[in-house]
Fold this protein.
Amino acid sequence: MGKMDFESLFKESAKIHGHLCPGQVLGVRMSMLGLKKIGIKDPRGDDKKNLIVFVEIDRCATDAVQSVTGCSLGKRTLKFMDYGKMAATFVNLKTSRAVRIVAREDSRDKAKEYFPEIADKYEAQLEAYKIMTDKELFDVMEVSINIKKENLSGKPSGRVKCDKCNEYVQVADPILRERRGVKKGEKILCRPCASGGYYNVKKL
Ligand SMILES: [Zn+2]
Ligand SMILES: [Zn+2]
């Protein structure tokens, strides 16, 4: 079992992430709080099958959430919801307890008040986020998840072929089903073929 104290988790996540930043402090503290609220003590050991985390932003703090919780996209225990919010939801699959934690916007200004002598605002945030209370940093809400818990993890089981590009799409994950497989009349289309993707194939 890994150490669950702030300093070791922070060191570890900064190493994985590649630099020290306020996002690492926020992400580590957010994860520690979330895990505590849902009663998960050993996320990377005994409890690893009981935990799923939804992250709502792809920023520095997300790496810290991944590092502390051990959840990852590849293990299908980390779900990325592209909302652009500094927030994450921690779900205990055993008890169905779920809390969503949102970083408070006013914590940025409060950080300056904690360390007025530090000119660099990121440095002030980094230091302040270590000592500010959970209440100053986060809003916490109990939530329920709109997905059946037995469907949250496990192996994807279904693949369909897109009628337009002929590429295969895994559709079994109910979170992703709507985003991935689209029925248009008689045809089944992948999402980029149905509504445009991030890439266009160049004609040679
Ligand atoms: Zn960073
Ligand atoms: Zn397609």
The mean pLDDT is 88.
